[in-house]
Design goal:
There is one protein chain. 33% of the residues lie in helices and 27% in strands. It is an alpha+beta fold and 273 residues long. The chain folds into two domains: 201 residues, no CATH class; 70 residues. The N and C termini lie far apart (132 Å).
């Protein structure tokens, strides 16, 4: 089942899990991953028959029953992919940033919204329609995947009109927090650092040691040079101000003498005339 998945990837160059088919647990899980690759889209995945049945949804899922979101069926993914979030390096299939947008459990149901087994769910899926009830953080309630006629790949993901439905505009991008965009979706991450959902980036011990050593080297010369230089400049400035404050008084005393000397000269000139 995972032959096509493995064929497209070189696991020596991508952090994606190679994985293998697994036995499903007591509760079937789902995940929606925001994939900022060549074209931004959302990957909708349902755990079924030991793998993740997957669809690429260009605009992401919607909680509004009026929205019929195109869902392109893609190759099965390993169950280990359900927790994957990180950077797929350039040059690899699906290169870009992957983030877990929503996750939780789901129950496949029949037309009467009654729970059905995995085997029955596979039959419904093969016939081109699968109903299920989701319990996630963002998505809740009844949904259906319907395959378009005469088209194996293109499906529609539709929300049923139940108590969880909304009747206003619903866009998956609007529910992303700014912090997540900045920290996790930023392209060009150095050393292709990998993120796990709801956890900080993994960084090596060597990197942290280099940073702290650099800070100490830079800080030491600043303290040694800055203090003497600033104290010298302050002393020079203070000395200059004192000299300038005394000079106006000396100038005034000099200018008074020439003025008193000129008056007698004018009186003597009048007497001579």
């Amino acid at each position: 089942m995972l032959k096509e998945y493995k064929k497209k990837r070189d696991f020596r160059n991508t952090p994606e899990p190679s994985g293998k088919k697994q036995t499903s647990g007591a509760h079937l899980r789902f995940v929606v991953q925001r994939h900022d690759a060549t074209r931004l889209h959302y990957d909708f995945r349902l755990e079924l028959d030991g793998v993740l049945k997957s669809w690429a949804v260009p605009r992401g899922p919607s909680m509004n029953p009026a929205d019929k979101r195109l869902a392109v069926h893609v190759e099965d993914h390993p169950v280990d992919y359900i927790d994957f979030a990180g950077v797929i390096p350039q040059g690899n299939y699906g290169a870009g940033v992957v983030q877990v947008w929503d996750h939780g459990n789901y129950i496949p149901v029949n037309a009467d919204i009654e729970p059905i087994s995995e085997r029955e769910a596979l039959k419904w899926l093969k016939n081109g329609e699968l109903k299920f009830v989701i319990k996630g953080k963002k998505l809740s309630g009844e949904f259906v995947l319907v395959r378009l006629k005469r088209d194996e790949k293109n499906w529609l993901l539709i929300k049923h009109n139940d108590e969880y439905a909304v009747h206003t505009k619903y866009e998956a991008e609007d529910l992303i927090k700014g912090k997540s965009k900045k920290e996790v979706f930023a392209k060009g991450a150095k050393n292709e650092r990998i993120w796990e959902s709801d956890r900080p980036a993994k960084t090596g011990k060597k990197t942290g040691t280099k940073r702290s050593a650099t800070k100490k080297k830079v800080a030491a010369p600043r303290k040694a040079v800055a203090k003497p230089a600033s104290s010298i400049v302050k002393k020079k400035a203070a000395t200059g101000v004192k000299k300038i404050s005394r000079s106006p008084a000396a100038t005034r005393s000099k200018t008074v003498t020439p003025k008193t000397a000129r008056k007698p000269a004018r009186k003597s000139a009048r007497k001579t005339a």
